[in-house]
Amino acid sequence: MTAQQKKRLSAIAAARFSEPMSLHTTLGVGGKAEAFVAVTSIAMLQEVLRFASEESFPYLVIGGGSNLLVRDGGLKGIVISLQGEFTAVDLVRESGGMVSLAAGSAVATATLLRRADDLGLAGFEVMAGVPGTIGGNIRMNAGTRAGSIADVVEEVTIVERSGREVTLTPRALRFEYRSVKLPPGAVIARVVCKLKRAEPGAGRATIRALLEHRRQTQPVATENCGCAFKNPGKLSAGQLIDEAGLKGIRVGGARISTLHANFIINEGTATARDIIVLMNLVRDRVREHAGITLEPEVVIVGGKGE
Ligand code: EPU
Fold first, then answer.
1. pTM for the model
2. CA-proximal residue: ligand 1, atom 40 (nearest)
3. Is 183 helix (H, G, I), strand (E, B) or coil?
4. Nearest by Cα to 253 from 18, 19, 27, 15
5. 166: closest CA among 85, 50, 46?
6. End-to-end alpha-carbon separation of the chain, Å?
7. 276: CB partners within 8 A, 6+ apart
8. 190 CA to centre of ligand 1 in angstroms
9. Is there an atom of ligand 1 within 6 Å of 145 CB?
């Protein structure tokens, strides 16, 4: 990016250049983003997208960075972090015992879970313990064994690459296990969830039990990206990796969790390369052992580095 381009971008949004992506991902690895901008409104987002298109820069929106692996060579173009109006939560309508709760895409899922329960809204408990933001969760159709975000979505507002705002129904989004159909370059701006009227705090016990179960079965306090691989059909990728005898194996600073084998932990010194080499090794060993090829769930982006 030239000095002139940096100046233009900085006039649109608060921008940092050569920003380490290890600071913005829960795995704590990855190279630098050429530009990293804090975008606080839809109007500002539209201006950043216009700039990207005029100057032919690629862009990537990050949510909680909890399912993202940035390679060591870093990211060309612009990383967009949504803040400000993208963190609002509002009740939009209520009828026949159903309540529509709108959340900006940068709202942390854990925050929305608490807000919904405090407001006496049920249905969101299936998301207990899921890291990241609502926008990121939509992008991944994130969830648990109890269900996924798709179960409660009423509509999703996106901003297309052209800057046009469009509201989509779950039908148009064609949710599937850990996937959704979005136009290329679309940015998720706002999500409306359809929840049931209940007593405030009624979901607290369920949420607590789900979080406790997660603490016992997953390495929640470590640097990780949630499950590294998708579950193949009804089988558990974690169980397959475990049965292939891979718990605890290590490449550089990256290790397969001894608690849940579908978690890769950065023990402090891992590089993106360590994690990718470990993932490839896991995929190959599971294929030899069980005849199943695991697909990554974590989104891998960026250049390879040296
Ligand atoms: N298992 C093992 N060894 C392991 C891990 C699991 O034998 O190392 C066995 C368990 O004992 C259990 C079965 O595999 O019998 C399933 O395990 P678990 O209940 O932990 O569920 P999972 O299929 O491994 C899924 C989601 C998780 C989500 C949990 C709990 C995927 C890829 N994984 O894991 O989601 O937290 O259910 O709801 O969909 C994520 O998507 O990032 C994620 C962590």
1. 0.95
2. 227
3. coil
4. 27
5. 46
6. 20
7. 69, 71, 300
8. 29
9. yes
